[in-house]
Amino acid sequence: MKIIKIAALAGALITSSFVAAEGTKEVLMGVDILPNSIELHVASGGCTNADSFIINVDKSASPYSVTILRIQPDFCEAHIPDGIKVSFDRTLLGLGGKVEFILTNKIGNTSNHQ
Question: Where is the signal peptide (predicted)?
Answer without folding.
Answer: 1-20
